[in-house]
Write a structure and sequence with these properties.
Length: 630
């Protein structure tokens, strides 16, 4: 009972966020047009083929009427045979054209998928880190898969269907009117009865489709999150599997309901249309037969009218269905465009330059920073909330200034949450400073190309994430052209060669999701090996040895010292040995640099550093490892 209440509650909060029925804007259609533009030659050919096909479709019933007339008139067998042959010929050509048209529409649709997918992928890749810290991976993946395919359906199935069916419809009607306008009009009076509800149903379907898409995305997110090794572990340790299942079931149930409702709406419509078409046919036979008996209409004309009528309701049914399909496909287009509309907060300038050659200095000049609020970096529909938090953005860094001359090493120390990692993240532009300037080689990082920053700056982060790929692939990420010897050399220096050699497939062993099969220390040593391999001119170590025990730390420290030689370094340190080696120590507290100087100078002041030194650095190794500083 309790479980169900929770499930329904969370279900309803998303539903309310999603259940709006906006009409589609002209702007959306214009943008779809922009995506179609590169394919316009093919679209033109397609339209031409559709018209030829429609012409042929009208020809057959008219010819059939001629056969009846020939029989009634008692013409010779040759005439009948000639018309029959013509009908056969048309059928063959129609079949061929049908295949050709389908090929054209398929290539159009698949081409569109390709364009949309690559565009969205490129765009998402350019989003800043802040975006990824907010959005749910599953929701993003769903946009790239389900919605892109949904959008494509608008093209290959419907847009094409709409055009050819519309041409067929108009042509058929025109021919029918010339044969007998009275009968045609009577047969068509029932038409409006269907066009009007079709419109309303389209809107209703679009709303349902939107809701289903939202639920599917949420379920996808849940699965990618919960079914990853760390997520599953967390659920096993702390989660409430029954609650999770209940909520999942509630959502899946709602998707089922929507599926049934959609199917019923669609089939009610089709059934009704089929019925009307049958009734109209009876009317043509009855009324046409009456006219023919009175001699005011040829018998062949009655047959032609009846045949044309059956060909009239087929495109009509398709058109009504197409409307619904177009509506739901437009929903997908909108969801895709929504992502494309998110402007990356951090973008490379068009006139960006390279980091200058030679040794590089690192400079912070009056830098203040607060993490951006959600509404600046994300989309409500990707986070499963109704509106995004506009607040937040509390200032984390206050007027931070320092300079690391080329080849010098700066150590940042301070308690946890002081802002050390934040300082480190501003250098590679994972975030941009709100005020003040961050410079690399004397140039504002905002004026530098992303590629040259990557080539200049190496970083070992606190969590040391690894891709679910081979050890080799994870290492080569930083320097794809590295040779086998260089790889092993880096592994040796980070004291990982023994382990990798003992792995079942050596360098080609896949390290699990989030590098899960490696221990924290091994993972960290692998990211250090990557750093040694890439050999960038500036190095940032964010507690790079925090996960190592004292023996392996001593060994890795050697490798790191070697890696740091001659390089400009920013080291967030938690070990006295590292701090002592620094040319300058900055003590960071509450986002401010509160003390600066060398080890001896700072000890002499007897301030915060002295306190940290006394309480943190001088603890026995075992305790130090258990609670590293910062
Ligand atoms: N992505 C983020 N969004 C919002 N606040 C953050 C984010 N990352 C860190 N913070 C906050 O910024 C402050 C500084 O964090 P951090 O730089 O990681 O500290 P340190 O590395 O010194 O332990 C902390 O109060 C932390 O909660
Ligand atoms: Mg940190």
């Amino acid at each position: 009972m309790d479980m169900e209440v929770t499930a329904w509650h969370s279900l309803h909060s998303t539903m309310n966020a999603q259940e709006d029925r906006r009409p589609f804007s002209r702007a959306t259609l214009r943008r779809i047009g922009a995506f179609a533009r590169p394919h316009r030659a093919r679209i033109g050919r397609f339209l031409l083929l559709s018209m030829v096909t429609a012409l042929l479709a009208v020809a057959t019933p008219v010819l059939a009427g001629r056969v009846v007339d020939a029989i009634v008139r008692g013409d010779d067998a040759g005439t009948v045979a000639r018309i029959a042959l013509l009908i056969a010929l048309i059928a063959v050509v129609e079949a061929g054209l049908g295949l050709l048209t389908r090929w054209l529409s398929a290539t159009l649709g698949e081409g569109l998928i390709l364009d949309l997918r690559t565009t969205v992928f490129d765009h998402v890749q350019r989003m800043p880190v802040a975006f990824f810290t907010r959005t749910r991976t599953g929701a993003l993946v769903s946009r790239l898969n389900n919605d892109v395919i949904g959008a494509q359906r608008a093209f290959s199935n419907t847009l094409s269907g709409v055009v050819s069916n519309l041409v067929t419809l108009l042509l058929t009607m025109a021919v029918m009117l010339t044969i007998s306008w009275q009968i045609t009009l009577l047969a068509l009076v029932l038409l409006p009865v269907f066009v009007v509800p079709a419109r309303r149903m389209g809107t209703r379907m679009a709303g349902l489709q939107r809701e289903a898409a939202a639920h599917n995305a949420t379920m996808g997110t849940r699965m990618t999150e919960r079914f990853s090794a760390p997520g599953a572990t967390l659920v096993k340790l702390f989660g409430r599997p029954a609650d999770e299942s209940a909520e999942f079931a509630a959502r899946a149930g709602r998707v089922r309901d929507i599926g049934v409702r959609t199917a019923m709406l669609q089939s009610t419509f089709v059934t009704a249309l089929t019925l009307v078409s049958a009734l109209a046919l009876a009317l043509v036979y009855g009324l046409g037969g009456y006219y023919a008996l009175r001699g005011s209409l040829e018998p062949g004309a009655v047959v032609a009218l009846a045949l044309l009528l059956t060909r009239l309701y087929a495109p009509l049914t398709a058109l009504a269905g197409a409307r619904v399909e177009v509506m739901s496909a437009l929903v997908s287009f909108e969801r895709v465009f929504e992502i494309l509309d998110l402007k990356p907060l951090i973008a490379e300038r068009t006139d960006a330059r390279e980091v200058p050659e030679g040794p590089v200095s690192v400079e912070f000049d009056g830098v203040s920073f607060g993490y951006p609020s959600a509404d600046k970096v994300s989309l409500a529909s990707l986070e499963e909330v109704a509106t995004l938090d506009a607040g937040g953005g509390t200032q984390v860094l206050h007027d931070v200034s320092f300079t690391a001359e080329p080849g010098r090493m700066i150590a940042l120390v301070g308690s946890s949450g002081a802002g050390k990692s934040t300082i480190a993240q501003l250098l590679p532009r994972l975030y941009d400073a709100d005020s003040g300037t961050v410079r690399l080689g004397g140039v504002d990082v905002r004026d530098l190309t992303a590629d040259s920053i990557r080539a200049t700056l190496g970083m070992v982060t606190q969590d040391g994430h690894l891709f679910h790929e081979s050890v080799r692939a994870n290492l080569l990420l930083a320097r794809p052209e590295a040779t086998e010897e260089e790889i092993w050399d880096a592994l040796r220096r980070s004291r990982l060669d023994g382990l990798v050699a003992s792995l079942p497939e050596g360098l080609d062993t896949v390290v699990g999701e989030r590098g899960y099969r490696l221990s924290g220390g091994e993972r960290q040593r692998l990211t250090i090996a990557r750093l040694l391999l890439a050999r960038q001119r500036v190095v940032i170590l964010d507690e790079a040895t925090a996960h190592l025990d004292s023996t392996s730390e001593a060994a890795v420290q050697e490798a790191l010292t070697e890696a740091l030689e001659g390089r400009t370094a920013l080291v967030i340190a938690h070990r006295l040995s590292t701090v002592r080696a620094a040319d300058l120590i900055l003590v960071v507290e509450d986002g401010r640099v509160v003390e600066r100087g060398t080890h001896e100078e700072l000890l002499a002041i007897g301030g915060r550093y002295e306190e940290l030194h006394r309480t943190q650095f001088e603890k026995p190794a075992s305790q130090e490892a258990a609670r590293p500083l910062g």
